[in-house]
Amino acid sequence: MDKHPQNWFYWLNDYAPAVGLIVTGVITLICAGWALFTWQKSKAGVDSSTQRKSNASIDISGQVSIGGDVTQVGGDLIITGDPVDQKTIGHLNNLLDRYRAELDQRDIELADKEALIAQLKTTLELAQKIAAGGDDKLASRARALLADLGQGSLGAALLPDLRALIQDYEQGPIKDLVQLHMGEGALTFYGDPQASLAAYRRAHALDPENIAAIEFIGQLELIFGNLKAAEDALRQVLDLGRTQEDQRAIAVGYANLGVIAMARGDWEVAVDYFTQALALDEELGRKEGMAMQNGNLGVVAAARDDFDAAVDYFNQALARYEELGRKEGMAQIYANLGAVAFKRGDLLEARQFWVQARGLFAEMGVQPKVALIDESLADLEPPAEP
Known about the structure:
Strand order of the largest sheet: 1-2
Largest sheet: 2 strands, antiparallel
Shape: globular
Strand content: under 5%
Oligomer: single chain
Helix content: over 70%
Number of strands: 2
Structural class: mainly alpha
């Protein structure tokens, strides 16, 4: 998924257009980097408080724990051991694995993937609670949705029943209805981004302080090239962070507004935003945030032909990603280091970096990035003899 205009990196276009496409990937990584955090802040449907005050955590990589008769401990749902529940859990885990594979094939960045998977997971956990509830019509709708977990394609199998459940749930608790809309947004994100945007807008209308919904509205508006609408959404993230004295949300706002400034070629403004985000990340000890902002500052430096500074920023980002074991971040930084080496005329070094990037992307199954790097590697081949 090419989220951003290619002309952001016109500084490479005269040399290798494919390189410019590779470099844009670091922007999507940075722009998306805070989605997981904002989603964790707004997780709904698992406690009796409002979304923005929820303290429930999300274990994305862990097994799902849902069930018919449930109790709540710190917001986590506990199963009873019912064989039906166990079967549903197995289907849900399989579906989430398929969903992750779909996202991988569509070149959606890692932080977005984790946030979207968490949204879908929590929505289906909520459906299991509804299925075990007292309202016959709603319970029937939820059971129909859960029955489709192990069948067919993700959207075709789940969307009709999910939308029917949402329609019948209009009079239900707002926090649960918001969660259902968030799940619809996640389920349609890669296949029907317009429908995804509409779902996140409905969630935001019901809960104006839902940072996750606003974040994804901004992401999708950016995908559609609507910079003003994206900026408006991302300024809301910044404002909510300030209102709630939430330093991390403020960092979200700064980082993403920096991306908007970069899209417009406002390099000084972009550097200011990214520097403020980096300072907050350092204060909070958020190593991934520091890696993202260093990478972002590296892209700006490269766009301004300050290659020494770009390499320094990229190396700082690479060290952070290596420390965190984040292969996708490492791969993108290698790709960008290769682009800088190419611009400097060091073709051997460019090849070495791109081969490292390609290996990591191939290992993770991110085929669109592999194809882009293959194009750039082909540009390094000497012309065929006449």
